[in-house]
Design goal:
42% helix; seven-stranded mixed β-sheet; 9 helices; single chain
């Protein structure tokens, strides 16, 4: 990811609706899947600037890895201590040592994403959970993806197939950012036609709308735990390693 995007992420992720909604959903799924609390070992793969890892570490034994020294510096400034610079295809952990891995919008950044999914499977304990999100639908490809240095966007069946190929047998995948999908699609089409350098699409919204969107994403998260949503700008998956 471009270094300027890390600084932008750090300035927004504590309050901007997209970051907050994604983080709340991930923690909701983690708590439902790995309820052991502080005894459970959770790795934040691609920990970015640390908002997710900070919250995970308040409830679990949390650690983070990222390839960017700038990202790890931001994590350290938050007080996160278990940090390592590493690639998703070569995690610095023992085989079968983790209860869960969070990988929020990470695999699209990894060229060898199949190998990275197999590496996550290796690092998890039997019964451990990989909880991930990735961007969905090639039709949404645009300057946002270029600025964030994505290799791809995914469809649901493709992601399910990749996770099973990596060794996971219990896999549940759903689209997310469901309610806002038509708006996201329209914005991405406009961005494609707009000249200028590529940058991540995080439109400014007034405070009242930001709060409303956070609540909307919380409602969607509750629905997503029970139902598989048929479309959305992202995909969310829980993949369990067999006992």
């Amino acid at each position: 990811m471009n270094p300027s995007e890390y600084s932008r992420m750090r300035s927004l992720e504590d309050h901007y609706w997209w970051f907050v909604g994604r983080r709340q959903l991930a923690l909701r799924l983690l708590r439902a899947t790995v309820p052991e609390g502080r005894g459970a070992r959770v790795l934040d793969l691609g920990c970015g600037t640390g908002a997710v890892l900070e919250e995970v570490s308040a409830e679990y034994w949390g650690a983070g890895v990222d390839l960017s020294p700038l990202a790890l510096q931001f994590c350290s400034q938050r007080g996160c201590r278990r940090l390592a610079r590493a690639s998703g295809v070569n995690l610095p952990v023992r085989t079968g040592s983790l209860d869960s891995i969070l990988a929020l919008d990470v695999f699209e950044h990894i060229e060898l994403h199949r190998e990275a999914m197999r590496e996550a499977w290796r690092a998890l304990k039997p019964g451990g959970a990989l909880i991930l999100s990735v961007p969905a639908f090639r039709s949404l490809w645009g300057p946002h993806d270029v600025a964030l240095m994505h290799f791809r966007r995914y469809r649901r069946r493709e992601l399910e197939s990749l996770l099973r190929e990596a060794g996971f047998r219990q896999v549940r995948v759903s689209y997310s950012v469901f309610f806002l999908f038509p708006l996201v699609w329209a914005i991405r089409q406009v961005e494609r036609a707009r000249p200028g350098p590529a940058k991540a699409s995080l439109p400014r919204v007034p405070g009242w709308m930001n709060s409303l969107l956070i609540r909307l994403q919380a409602i969607e998260g509750a629905v997503l735990q029970r139902l598989r949503l048929p479309w959305g700008s992202s995909l969310v998956a829980i993949a369990l390693k067999d006992e």
